[in-house]
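Researcher: I'd like a candidate sequence for this fold, 368 residues long. If you have to choose between options at a position, lean toward the conservative one.
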């Protein structure tokens, strides 16, 4: 069976129908409040057709594009992480029952998700979190249950933003593994279609329901050319050779002070990052004192309380907190999990209020 197909717009609509017939909850990009976010959808008509985005350091804007593409934009402010590793999750609840305490049964519903429109960098971010939350040491049962039945429709990039640098990290602009289906959108000579690659048995079963046609060599070549065009347009890059060692050997480099003068320690970069997983645990009681709950919430290594312990706070300066974040991504993450903790999506550059560009900061330390 051929694994490369051509999906017309009609076939693309059938893809949504096929996924719904298998009881998947569809999540895809939509326009909301002047931004593109990921939310539940029912059909391709809800996608940001004809919309694109401009991203540069500390800048994000939506604008119209004339080709009517379904995926003419880049990365959204949110990442898919919020569906697999929710920003807030109840760990347990208990209530007073007379003189004793009764633990309440968990009532969390975990949908059987199909993610539609996962960019290659974001797909790699999911695979990185798999290493963490599926491991024996750091395993998270809630994550495993949400991830188990996940169906991923990746979309290869044919355009880039000023902030993208996935190519230098080998995480894009083409999806290589981890997907069920991977699409490349082509608008060429009045024709609008997708070249689709099957990546799993699940993907093959869904693809069969769309009644696709075989992609010609020319159509496959045109799709590859568009992806290569995106790769060639990337201006930012990170040289990764010996990078973990370079960073760990330069913890007292004077350039950290230069960054600290600009960093607001707001935590934006960690909140939009698709791989960050820091969390805090809070205990909450109701006003009567008869019910209590323990919740896990996303946290950031930039907050003062994150590094506060019984003996004091061991990261009291902006310098120490930024350095911790950057060196974890590009140095100690490699020691812990065997991969870098960054996928080159550029979100941290886009959403930094003062436009700090980690590629420039890393290159400054490396160059010195």
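Model: Candidate sequence:
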């Amino acid at each position: 069976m051929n694994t490369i197909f051509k999906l017309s717009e009609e076939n693309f609509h059938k893809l949504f129908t096929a996924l719904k017939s298998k009881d998947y909850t569809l999540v895809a990009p939509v326009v909301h409040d002047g931004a593109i976010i990921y939310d539940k959808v029912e059909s391709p008509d809800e996608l940001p057709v004809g919309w694109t985005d401009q991203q540069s350091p500390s800048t994000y804007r939506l604008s119209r594009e004339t080709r009517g593409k379904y995926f003419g934009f880049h990365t959204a402010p949110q990442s898919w992480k919020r569906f697999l590793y929710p920003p807030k999750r109840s760990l347990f609840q208990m209530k007073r029952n007379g003189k004793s305490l009764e633990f309440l049964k968990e009532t969390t519903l975990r949908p059987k998700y199909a993610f539609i429109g996962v960019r290659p960098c974001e797909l790699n971010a999911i695979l990185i979190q798999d290493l963490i939350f599926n491991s024996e040491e750091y395993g998270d049962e809630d994550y495993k249950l949400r991830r188990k039945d996940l169906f991923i429709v990746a979309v290869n990039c044919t355009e880039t933003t000023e902030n993208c640098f996935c190519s230098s990290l080998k995480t894009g602009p083409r999806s290589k593994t981890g997907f069920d289906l991977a699409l490349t959108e082509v608008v060429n000579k009045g024709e609008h279609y997708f070249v689709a690659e099957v990546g799993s048995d699940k993907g093959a079963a869904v693809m069969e329901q769309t009644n696709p046609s075989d992609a010609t060599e020319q159509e496959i070549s045109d799709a590859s050319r568009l992806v290569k065009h995106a790769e060639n347009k990337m201006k930012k890059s990170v040289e990764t050779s010996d990078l973990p060692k370079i960073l760990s050997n330069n913890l007292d480099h004077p350039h950290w002070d230069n960054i600290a003068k600009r960093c607001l320690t707001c935590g934006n970069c960690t909140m939009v990052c698709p791989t960050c997983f820091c969390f805090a645990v809070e205990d909450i009681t109701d006003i009567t004192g008869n019910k209590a709950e323990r919740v896990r919430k996303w946290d950031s290594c930039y907050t003062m309380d994150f590094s506060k312990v019984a003996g004091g706070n061991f990261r009291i300066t902006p310098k120490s907190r930024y350095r911790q974040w950057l060196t974890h991504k590009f140095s100690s993450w490699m020691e812990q999990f065997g991969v870098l903790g960054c996928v080159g999506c550029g979100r941290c550059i886009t959403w930094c209020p003062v436009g700090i560009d980690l590629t420039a900061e890393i290159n400054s330390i490396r160059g010195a």
